[in-house]
Write a structure and sequence with these properties.
460 residues, alpha+beta, Pdz3 Domain, 2-enoyl-CoA Hydratase, Chain A, domain 1, 3 domains, six-stranded antiparallel β-sheet, 16 helices, globular
Length: 460
């Protein structure tokens, strides 16, 4: 270590004395030497400069500055679906159905979605000047929004799918996730429930302690939740505390290719103990213990320090690159090829419903939302029980015809239920709230329907 450190100092000193132009030492080290060194280890270890470290700490606080509005993004278009009560957006007068045309002097019409996202994110750093178009309103509206700290609950959706069977989605694992989930379950019936669909799809992980608490909600005292295998010494195990009283209702867990890290630990623990069947697609495969070490001058080092394993000692981490590319990579000669893929393998594979050509066109053209904007404006007072009736479907078909979308009778009939539900979702998004619209989508989700079917069988 001393020899290599001396060599680095020699090279750096030579650069300082002889390089053709003056250079910024901090930029050379923060942006060059340290990241390059860590790239030889694994894809997840990283040096954090002061700005990156502060961003990490902001994420861990479970709050972020924002305007309190939910938007629909399309190429060159930002349409408001909902404004949260007492949020900056609500106080400024932003309403569902409004379209943001200009943000801080920048027209949005020519920006693709991948550019719209950072533009919207940067606007949260300070005052935002908006030019807004409101349906059936002759003039553009000018608005000024001041961002405020907004709570970001990790248990984003919870409701009864049918009597005795509940649904809960965890977006990520934060410090308050376990408390949020317990409160949601108790509000839906707690121990009186027959079953729960726990949706971890798209969950990238987060605070391991929170994931451990969530897993413990459904396991018996003394059950092993996970193993930790470090560089040296014996493996460590984490058990459910003896004082825990778990929920006993039947459980189904949903995962997909974006389910990672702490979320995979929960799915793996419940699967290994036979406590839950897992449905969906193989998870991402990130089973690394990441520790953040604070350094001088507001910097930090995020370092891989160990591996997680499920209770049955299954490795979650997928094989990293070609053999020898990273120190964490395992050579495949003596390994099972499927095991190298890592992740949690579902007990039952489910995939999203394949869309017909007509359905793809309707979604790509944003026809459902555009129709819903006018529909909600013309029919105020729509409530959660709204269902598109035949006259509404006829109006929608006429609306499509005006936009030169003219499906055949067979195409329309084959997609009629999809069209009905998609219209219902967008109308409820604008008239009631995004949670009501999401519920419509969740109820027709094939993985959710499969989970409910299995849970019904456990009751009878």
């Amino acid at each position: 270590m001393e020899r290599e450190a001396k060599r680095f100092v020699e090279v750096f000193g030579l650069l300082d004395r002889r390089f053709a132009e003056a250079f910024d030492p901090a930029a050379a080290i923060y942006g060059g030497a340290l990241p390059a060194m860590l790239r030889t280890l694994d894809p997840h270890s990283a040096f954090l400069d002061p700005q990156q470290f502060e961003s990490l700490r902001e994420m861990q606080r479970s709050t972020e500055k924002g305007f309190g509005s939910v938007v629909n993004l399309l190429p060159g278009r930002v349409i408001v679906l909902q404004t949260l009560p007492d949020s900056p957006s609500a106080r400024a007068g932003v309403a569902p159905g409004d379209e943001i045309l200009v943000l801080n002097g920048q027209p949005l019409a020519q920006l693709p979605v991948e550019q719209l996202i950072p533009v919207l994110a940067s606007a949260r750093q300070g005052s935002a000047q908006l030019m807004v178009r409101r349906p059936n309103f002759p003039n553009l509206l000018e608005m000024t929004l001041i961002p405020a700290e907004m709570a970001d609950p990790s248990v984003s959706r919870q409701f009864a799918l049918e009597p005795g069977i509940a649904y809960a989605k965890i977006l990520n694992f934060e410090a308050e996730t376990a408390a949020e989930l317990r409160a949601a379950l108790d509000a839906m019936g707690g121990e009186q429930l027959h079953g729960l669909v726990l949706d971890l799809r798209g969950n990238p992980g987060g605070v391991i302690e929170a994931a451990v608490q969530v897993a413990a909600f459904f396991l018996d005292p003394g059950d092993r939740i996970l193993w930790v295998r470090g560089r040296s010494g014996p493996k460590e195990e984490l058990l459910v505390p003896p004082s825990f009283e778990p929920y006993k209702f039947a459980l189904r867990v949903l995962i997909d290719g974006r389910t990672a890290s702490a979320a995979e630990l929960v799915a793996g623990a419940l699967q290994d103990h036979g406590r839950a069947r897992v449905l969906g697609q193989r998870s991402f495969g990130k089973g690394l213990v990441q520790s953040v070490f604070e350094l001088s001058d507001g910097t930090a080092l995020a370092l891989t320090t160990a591996f997680y394993q499920t209770p049955r000692e299954r490795a979650i981490q997928r094989w990293l690159g070609t053999c020898g590319e990273f120190q964490l990579a395992r050579c495949p000669e003596d390994e099972d090829e499927d095991a190298l893929r890592g992740g949690i393998v579902p007990d039952r594979a489910t995939r999203p419903r394949q869309l017909s050509e007509l359905e793809q066109v309707l979604l790509a053209s944003n026809s459902f939302l555009e129709f819903a904007r006018d529909f909600v404006r013309e029919k105020p007072g729509i409530g959660p029980s709204f269902e598109p009736d035949n006259p509404t479907l006829d109006d929608f078909q006429f609306y499509l015809s005006q936009r030169r979308i003219r499906p055949s009778i067979s195409e329309w009939s084959a997609s009629l239920e999809f069209i009905r539900q998609a219209l219902k979702q967008e109308v409820l998004n604008l008239a009631v709230g995004v949670a009501a619209g999401d519920e419509v989508e969740i109820r027709r989700d094939l993985a959710v329907l499969a989970a409910v079917e299995e849970l019904r069988a456990t009751v009878h």
